[in-house]
Amino acid sequence: MNAVVALANETARSGYGVLVFCSSRQGCELDARLIGRVLPQANELHPAIVEKRLELLGDLRSLSTELDPTLAETIPAGVAFHHAGMTTEERDLISSAYDHGVLKAVVATCSLAAGINLPARRVILHNARMGRDLIGPSMLRQMRGRAGRKGKDEIGETYLCCRSADLEDVIELMNADLPCVSSGLTTDKHRIQRALLEVISIRLVNSRESINDYIQKTLLNLSTTSDTIQDHVESSLQNLLKMGFIQCDNPGSYIATQLGKAIVASSLEPEDGAFVYRELQRALQAFVMDGEMHILYTFTPVHEFSLTINWQVFRSEMEALDDSGLRVMMFLGLKPFVVNRMAQGGTLKESTPEEKETARIYRRFYFALQLRDLCNEMPVHVVARKYDTPRGTVQTLEQTCQGFAAGMIKFCEQIGWGAMAAILDHFLDRLRAGAKADLLALTKVTFIKSRTARVFYDNGFKTVALLANADPKELVPILMQAQPTKLRLKSKDEEKYEEKLLIKAQIITDSANRLWQVDMQQELDEE
Length: 527
Prior knowledge:
This protein has 26 helices and 9 strands.
């Protein structure tokens, strides 16, 4: 640890950027604190740098999430962390500040190495592990690639700091060759099924001969023996026929069924598509329309999502459900006594396919509870605190569900369930806006999200037309109301801040005016 801090301190004090990789989120925050304590403090820095760092803190405070206390401590020293537990907006602000030299050191998790475009004079690997496992040669190359960048720095260097017990493994890792590129179709038989379903659905292939021609043009064909490929293709076609995703039009000729086309249109895996079809078929017989939970459950992804259920929270939320929510639970086959048992330390079995499917339903309902709060204008950081999960994970869940919901709408449209698609489409607008129905029009205006929209609504600006015809100066006090944490800053440059808000208000009125004109034109066209 001393070596990591010393190396980071040396580079940052020389005026260059340093990027530190850690094995965990907690490690990132700890390293950021320790590095921040040895770097120059505000009284040792140029006033311009101090001001820029204070502006960064102000920008972070003005987000819909609360300012992280660790960032509040480390940013004045020019240090920040960067991991998946943060929201996208937070990470963007940190990345931009580092890129412009406002921050001198950023500590990130190894898992983000491929997604970080932050060049540094010096890259430091604090341990060569991601969690408990040793990182691979490709990951090491990704992290080393951040050191030095043409046009940014003349040189770049990488240091790997590890425990003596890991030394032999690390030396072997540093000398290891990069793994060969392999076809993704070889890693999972379901991927071949998905690939074949896609090309049959869009009529790129329709016979065994054209299927073979397609397969011969894949990397799979170049890396696997012909007999093995033919066995995979034959078994995949038989599975697709058995599940009802394709059918034989003529002997040796294949076409996709409506269900198969719906699965392709919604970007689902074949098995997930079959599961969704069964669920929606059943839901159509008794869809619970007098509440939100059934629709929100439909929006939750069927594939694995890295979020752990807090069963105590689940029990608390279950006990607070209204009659509509409880009926959804009963319809889905969820048992209150199971939730109570889990909250007391029980284990949810997932040994058999049936048990795995049941566990998936419990997880999806837990996700739906979080979506319900987000759609009812609860801020991300409050939802994160309530469900004991990182803010970035809540935001990722929200974004994932938006994409999955759009897929569900396409699925319903392709199958011919127009009424279901219309219901889901209306609620998708609420999910995207993170707001109740009365704010949906306002949230389409640039810079107006759910919290700001509610403040405008409560101050009399209830329609886009009212915003479009407002004087931007009228909106500045309302924008300040929407950012109460920002107002508590004792900034010497308050006039400058108000000027920024005036520019923002002008953009809001311009955006509202464009939307209003579009609405007026549509009304004229309908007449």
